[in-house]
Every structure is written in structure tokens, then in C-alpha cells.
């Protein structure tokens, strides 16, 4: 079964169709599918440390109630996401010094080459569980550069048919 989600942001014109990678990251893809199924708009920002990434940290309290992140394994893991990758990192409360006092899942939209998950606390690995449709990459790159210049944005993440 092939599943897609769509990530949109009105100010930049971002409209990315994303193929979920159920074959290599089934649990992470399912988590993203459930987040998209709940609908909603989530605050995001251009990442500071990782390079060409729009980072969308979603607090655990804003996630679907049935979503079980407690046993979310690393799947299709990398510290060097590629252009077009959608990668998730789950951080339970108090995982890192300086983290907010709650758990969250970060949905990263990587739009260019040279990304690396080297954070102030050290190297992090993410589960690559989605891939932006090839025909959307150029427009996604342009929209994400617009978000970088504008600052905080709101991503609308939904299931796509």
C-alpha cells in the first residue's frame, strides 16, 4: 500500500507531496500518518544547527492520543539526511539538557544538500520515513528558502489521497 501526506505552508507557497517509506521505516511512517490524519497546523522554524531543514517540533500533548511513541524505534536511521527526506526524532521529556519540560516529536523537512544532525548536545540520528515527490523538490526548495527568510511559520500536515 502506497501512502502519501501533504505538507503546506501558505506564506511561502510550500506544497509538498510526501511518499511515506513504509518499507524501510514502518513504525515512523505510521506515526507520521497518524499525525497527518489528525490534521492541524503546527509551528515550525528553519533549523539553526542542521542546515537546510524546516524543523517542526510537535509537543506530545498535541499528538493524537492513540499515537504510542514510547517504543518508537530508530528506522532507516541517519545523521545526514538528504534533500527531500522527511525525518522524525522523538525526544521524551528531559532527554537533553535545555530541552523544554515535555516530550516532542520533531518532523524535519530537508530541502537541500549538506544537512547534518549535529546539535549542541552532540550527534543525533533521525528516522527517515518520508520522501518529497521528485517533481515537487524545486518548488519545495524555493518555499523553504522563503521560510528561512521569514522566520517562524505554521505547517499544515494532512493525509493525501
Structural summary, described in words:
This protein is an alpha+beta fold and 161 residues long. The chain has a single domain (4-160), classed as Cyclophilin (Beta Barrel), CATH 2.40.100. The chain has 2 helices and 11 strands. It has helices spanning 26-38, 137-150; strands at residues 4-9, 14-20, 41-46, 53-59, 77-78, 85-91, 104-110, 118-119, 122-123, 126-132, 153-160. The protein has an 8-stranded antiparallel beta barrel. Strand 1 and strand 2 (14-20) form a beta hairpin. The protein is globular. The mean pLDDT is 94.
List the helices and strands and how they pair.
Blueprint: E1 4-9, E2 14-20, H1 26-38, E3 41-46, E4 53-59, E5 77-78, E6 85-91, E7 104-110, E8 118-119, E9 122-123, E10 126-132, H2 137-150, E11 153-160
Number of helix segments? 2
Work out the number of β strands: 11
CATH class: Mainly Beta
CATH-defined fold name? Cyclophilin
User: Which CATH architecture is right?
Assistant: Beta Barrel
Calculate Rg over CA atoms. 14 Å
